[in-house]
Design goal:
alpha+beta; globular
């Protein structure tokens, strides 16, 4: 069972998306449960996002977050991608994570995030 707090949902639709994802997972017997992480992240190009925590199967999580974007016409960030680095820089460097931004189910951008004080913050963002 995997889990993370690096997925995010469009701020104004966060409650609706979380409810839909959990209902969809239960209905389709996926091992997945999501809840709001309790903080938001601002981006310049894409707006505000509410971070979510989830537990369950990684492939189910990726599938469900993309479906939620399309079904509810919401922007979501599906992250968990890392840059390949040598062992030494991975151990001592800042933890950086990359994500794909979906809007209405379509991949529209990319985002790089860093951890600061235990929370994800935007480092860079771009349209594809």
């Amino acid at each position: 069972m995997a889990g993370a707090d690096s997925f995010a949902v469009e701020y104004r639709k966060a409650q609706e998306v979380i409810k839909w994802m959990n209902t969809y997972a239960k209905k389709n017997n996926y091992k997945f449960e999501a809840k709001l992480a309790g903080y938001s992240m601002q981006t310049v190009k894409f707006g505000s996002f509410e971070l979510i925590t989830w537990s369950g199967d990684w492939s189910a999580a990726r599938n469900i977050i993309k479906k939620a974007s399309k079904q509810l016409r919401a922007k979501v960030i599906e992250s968990g991608y890392h840059e390949k680095r040598d062992l030494l820089s991975a151990m001592f460097g800042a933890s950086s994570e990359y994500g794909k931004l979906y809007s209405n189910g379509n991949h529209v951008g990319q985002i790089e995030m860093n951890r600061k004080a235990g929370r994800w913050v935007t480092k860079s963002e771009s349209y594809i």
